[in-house]
Specification:
Layout lengths: L12 E4 L2 E5 L5 H17 L18 E8 L4 E11 L2 E9 L8 H15 L4 E7 L5 H9 L3 E2 L12 E7 L1
Parallel strand pairs: 5-6
Antiparallel strand pairs: 1-2, 2-3, 3-4, 4-5, 6-8, 7-8
Length: 170
């Protein structure tokens, strides 16, 4: 099994524009609340056959690196996860920005942090599966601006009229 490179310190931090990135924190109440909100929104807006959102418990799997981004005062800004698919391929999972932090660059910063972790783990390609409804429009623009291009299904996902797949070499 491939394991992502994890921090050796209890709470590794990576400072970015007054914000810090923390590995883990799936046991924190604010993280679980943001993930529950994300899960509910994805379930409400996505057809069941095209909804692959993961619960907080699922994001704790050994093949997944979970990140939380916080303001200097400790306020949760965003979460994101990187799943190893093997053979140098990773997948961005469950990226979500807190409502109060939207349009502040938090999504871009979280995506950059996930891509940096993928590089450090030896990945050469990162892909993602997402939706195409208006709820996903801002995220899809973010991915395209970050150099992701549309691709076909990967990792056992099925192509549906609702689904968009993106990939990027890193």
């Amino acid at each position: 099994m491939f394991h992502l490179v994890r921090a050796t310190l209890p709470a590794q931090r990576h400072r970015m524009a007054g914000r810090t990135i923390h590995e883990g924190q799936l046991d924190r109440d604010d993280v679980r609340a943001l993930l529950a909100q994300h899960h509910a929104e994805m379930r409400a807006d996505s057809p069941p056959e095209a909804c692959h959102v993961m619960t907080a418990d699922g994001l704790g799997a050994p093949s997944i690196l979970f990140l939380a981004m916080r303001e200097e005062n400790g306020t949760l800004v965003a979460v994101g996860a990187l799943r190893s698919l093997g053979d140098g391929h990773g997948e961005v999972k469950s990226m979500r920005v807190a409502d109060a932090a939207r349009a502040t660059g938090a999504g871009r910063a979280m995506l950059e942090a996930l891509l940096e972790r993928a590089r450090r783990a030896g990945m050469t390609r990162v892909s993602m599966e997402t939706g195409n409804s208006p709820l996903f429009a801002a995220a899809n623009r973010l991915y395209e601006r970050a150099g992701f291009v549309r691709c076909g299904p990967f990792a056992g996902y099925s192509d549906t009229p609702f689904t968009h797949f993106f990939t990027r070499e890193i």
